[in-house]
């Protein structure tokens, strides 16, 4: 797949849900999820800064080696995403992200879901916006890495 197409897939692809419970176990779980949530939200926000700046190096360390990026056009891998982000194919004029929710799936996996808007073109074609984003993180070697990314345009 060409890097330009990969970036379109990245651009067009596509919580801590912390329930306050009455028990101490629920409170402890919420506290742990909150710490992880803040870390993942920070990583995700940094990825948007890197996306706008064409910082492929950030994505090279941010994405897991087995990363999958899913869009309406199919799936692509880390190498294509990194090449696409680093290339001049897309131009991000502005973006906004909000409404973050994180669901801790296990000790080493968490799903980040949020709302994103962007004014971006790839090969002169506007990227659909706004969108709901799903971003799956895994913890390997003590680091949180992005393993799956998907954006689903909203109407």
Report on the architecture of this protein.
- By secondary structure, the protein is α+β, with helices and mostly antiparallel strands.
- It has helices at 3-12, 24-53, 56-62, 78-86; strands spanning 63-71, 74-77, 90-106, 109-122, 125-126, 131-140, 143-153.
- Strands 1, 2, 3, 4, 5, 6 and 7 form a seven-stranded mixed beta sheet that branches.
- A hairpin with a 2-residue loop joins β6 and β7 (143-153).
- α2 (24-53) runs antiparallel to α3.
Secondary structure tally: strands:
7
The major beta sheet can be summarized as: 7 strands, mixed
**Radius of gyration from the alpha-carbon trace, in angstroms:** 16 Å
Task: Choose one word for the global shape.
Answer: globular
Number of helices: 4
Our estimate of the beta-strand percent is 35-45%
What is the helix content?
25-40%
Q: Name the poorly predicted regions.
A: 1-32
Distance between the termini: 29 Å
* Helical/strand content category: alpha+beta
Rounded mean pLDDT score: 83
Q: H/E series, N to C?
A: HHHEEHEEEEE
Summarize the structure.
The chain is of the alpha+beta class and 155 residues long.
Please name the defining characteristics of this protein:
alpha+beta, 4 helices, disordered N terminus, 7-stranded mixed beta sheet, globular, 155 residues
Helix and strand arrangement:
Elements: H1 3-12, H2 24-53, H3 56-62, E1 63-71, E2 74-77, H4 78-86, E3 90-106, E4 109-122, E5 125-126, E6 131-140, E7 143-153
Parallel strand pairs: 1-7
Antiparallel strand pairs: 1-2, 3-4, 4-5, 4-6, 6-7
Helix pairs in contact: 1-4, 2-3, 3-4
């Amino acid at each position: 797949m060409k890097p330009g197409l990969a970036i379109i897939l990245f651009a067009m692809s596509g919580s801590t849900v912390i329930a306050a419970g009455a028990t101490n176990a629920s409170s402890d779980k919420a506290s742990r999820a909150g710490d992880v949530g803040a870390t993942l939200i920070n990583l995700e926000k940094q990825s948007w800064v890197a996306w706008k700046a064409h910082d492929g190096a950030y994505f090279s360390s941010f994405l897991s080696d087995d990363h999958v990026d899913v869009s309406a056009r199919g799936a692509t891998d880390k190498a294509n995403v990194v090449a696409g982000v680093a290339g001049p194919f897309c131009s991000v004029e502005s973006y906004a992200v909000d409404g973050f929710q994180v669901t801790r799936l296990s000790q080493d996996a968490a799903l980040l879901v949020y709302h994103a808007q962007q004014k971006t073109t790839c090969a002169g074609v506007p990227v659909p916006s706004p969108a709901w984003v799903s971003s799956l993180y895994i913890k390997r070697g003590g680091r949180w890495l992005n393993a799956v990314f998907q954006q689903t345009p909203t109407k």
